[in-house]
Design brief:
Elements lengths: L4 E5 L3 H12 L4 E5 L7 H4 L4 E2 L13 E5 L9 H11 L3 E2 L2 E2 L4 E2 L4 E2 L4 E2 L4 E2 L4 E2 L4 E2 L4 E2 L4 E2 L4 E2 L4 E2 L4 E2 L4 E2 L4 E2 L4 E2 L4 E2 L4 E2 L7 E4 L4 E4 L7
Parallel strand pairs: 1-2, 1-4, 2-3, 4-5, 6-9, 7-10, 8-11, 9-12, 10-13, 11-14, 12-15, 13-16, 14-17, 15-18, 16-19, 17-20, 18-21, 19-22, 21-23
Antiparallel strand pairs: 23-24
């Protein structure tokens, strides 16, 4: 693919942050796909806007790189659905690494993954497709982070942490070394994780209460 344009999917804050990274890297943004622009108005003011996801199909797979600007929130699957749909149609999602991020040459960053401003990704770490390592997060050596995960701003992983697919690690979470966080788990704001967390669990509060996602607050 020679000198592709970047087409951003989403018009919120995450999309705007990605657009600014691309602008600083002198990449060409050819459009934004969103029914409404809710953030980054100055950035998107001069960018063509497309209102529907199907408008992506106006661009051939060899002339565009897609940028998944859909934010990742717990129990919301739109980001993954968008990635899966267009990947299956043959489109490529751009892997984006901010210039301010410190990423080891001996790490692996998957297709469509995004490493945002001021992050640290250390040696031996593997980050799978469509995962967000958000602003000022720190991922130490030999971590393995699955597909479609989100490390929210200011989260910290010590060495050799495993995070399985679709997990959400909220703002300010700290995880000690050699911990596994299971698939679809949600780790709430500010939790300190000192033992492995089963799949389909939610962890919250200063005492790191663990519940199954199928439970109600009355259980």
């Amino acid at each position: 693919m020679s000198n592709p344009g970047y087409l951003i999917l989403g018009g919120g804050g995450h999309a705007a942050a990605l657009a600014e990274i691309l602008i600083k890297q002198k990449k060409t943004i050819i459009g934004v796909v969103a029914p409404e622009i809710t953030a980054g108005l100055k950035i998107f003011d001069s960018v063509p806007q497309y209102l529907n996801d199907d408008d992506v199909l106006k661009f051939s797979v060899d002339q565009v790189l897609l940028v998944n600007g859909i934010g990742a929130m717990p129990r919301q699957t739109l980001r993954k659905k968008i990635y899966t749909r267009f990947s299956e149609l043959g489109y490529t999602f751009a892997t984006i690494i901010a210039d301010s991020a410190e990423v080891s040459d001996y790490s692996s960053i998957g297709c469509g993954a995004q490493v945002m401003n001021n992050c640290v990704v250390n040696i031996g770490t593997v980050i799978a497709e469509n995962t967000i390592i958000n602003t000022s997060s720190s991922v130490d050596h030999d971590c393995n982070i699955g597909a479609h995960c989100h490390l929210a701003p200011g989260s910290t992983l010590s060495g050799q942490v495993i995070i399985e697919g679709n997990a959400h690690i909220a703002t300010g979470v700290n995880v000690i070394n050699n911990i596994t966080i299971g698939e679809n788990a949600i780790i709430g704001v500010g939790a300190n994780i000192t033992k492995s967390i089963p799949s389909n669990s939610i962890v919250y509060g200063a005492r790191s209460v663990i519940k199954n996602l199928g439970e109600t607050d009355d259980n």
